[in-house]
Amino acid sequence: MNTQTIVTALSAVREQKPLVLNITNYVVMNNTANGLLAMGASPIMAHSRAELAEMMAFSGALVINIGTLDSVWIERMMFAVEQANQHGKPVVLDPVGCGASSLRTETSRRIAEAAEQLIIRGNASEIIALAGTGANAEANSKGVDALDASEAAVEAARYLVRYYRCSVVISGKIDIIVTDNSEFRLHNGHSMMPFVTGMGCTLSALTGAFAAVGETTGLAAAAVLGVAGEIAAEQSQGPGSLQLNLLDALYRLDAETLMQRLRMEQP
Ligand SMILES: Nc1ncnc2c1ncn2[C@@H]1O[C@H](COP(=O)(O)OP(=O)(O)OP(=O)(O)O)[C@@H](O)[C@H]1O
Ligand SMILES: Cc1ncsc1CCO
Ligand SMILES: [Mg+2]
Fold first, then answer.
1. Tens-place pLDDT, residues 205-246
2. Which residues bind ATP (predicted)?
3. What is residue 139's predicted lDDT score, i.e. its pLDDT?
4. Would you say 167 is a known binding-site residue?
5. Closest Cα to atom 5, ligand 2: which residue?
């Protein structure tokens, strides 16, 4: 993976407009659907057991976000993952608030265990909590916001990569993408981004779009959102306009700007 493969993956998303099936939380359904559309992908939000099997057959990827979990949805999420496996489709897990309750931690682990082609995208606290004692790290989870720096979650991410045979994206001031054979660090984004809810959820949704076109590490999504986010923040007075400007920046992002702005540390 290098800058050129990220640019090529973005073109592939815009050409193929992959359908991304989302079971996501009530807070971010609109943001994430708009983020996918603005970048050039096609979102669908679905929850009914009666349609998930049919829809998974023609979707390019499944995004499971546990942000507003309840007992009915857990069963749907497990069913959707089963369908994704059956159709050979990648699954992105966003373990929102993992560590803040045992329900969230246990459900995240069940989903990760079940998915055959998995990418996990969470903030540092969520990644540490998901790995649990396996990685010898203590997460500071109080809610859905990260209280740990990305670097503190690297050992946990490495553990998850080995344990679930997946790729892990730790988001934060620095985004760290951990795969079985490499680690990338991205220094893009903006300090205003965590003042808008669902930026991480948008990253997970975009990760689904890239996975659908064969970029199954999460790197391209983190690069695109990081660059679009910093462009949007430079044009915003605060979080209100950032939320809207992000959609414009995703829509307008071209290869040249992406290559110019990307600050990636390669292995
Ligand atoms: N301090 C920061 N500086 C630069 N970029 C940041 C910063 N904090 C977050 N970001 C960017 O914001 C995006 C979302 O990451 P974040 O870690 O805040 O997700 P999250 O905690 O899961 O958010 P949410 O749960 O609200 O969706 C990523 O693209 C990340 O790079
Ligand atoms: C604030 C919040 N609460 C549950 S999900 C969510 C959106 C950000 O993850
Ligand atoms: Mg989150």
1. 999 999 999 999 999 999 999 999 999 999 999 999 999 999
2. 121, 171
3. 63
4. no
5. 67
pLDDT at 135: 67
Instruction: State the ligand closest to the CA atom of 189.
Output: 1
CA of 186, closest atom in ligand 1? 31
Check: CB of residue 22 under 8 Å from CB of residue 45.
Answer: yes
Bridge partner residues of 184 (DSSP): 177
pLDDT of residue 144: 77
Residue 65 β-bridge partners: 94
Q: Which of 250, 265, 155 is nearest to 219 (CA)?
A: 265
Helical residues (DSSP H) of the chain, grouped into ranges: 3-16, 29-39, 49-58, 71-86, 102-114, 124-131, 154-164, 199-212, 219-234, 239-252, 255-261
CB-based pocket (< 6 A), ligand 1: 96, 123, 144-146, 171-173, 175, 189-191, 193-194, 197-201, 203, 225-226, 229
Is 14 one of the annotated binding-site residues? no
Q: Which domains does the chain have, with CATH numbers?
A: 3-265 (3.40.1190.20)
Q: Is 171 annotated as a binding residue?
A: yes
Give this complex's ipTM.
0.98
pLDDT tens digit sequence for 133-183: 766 566 666 677 777 899 999 999 999 999 999 999 999 999 999 999 999
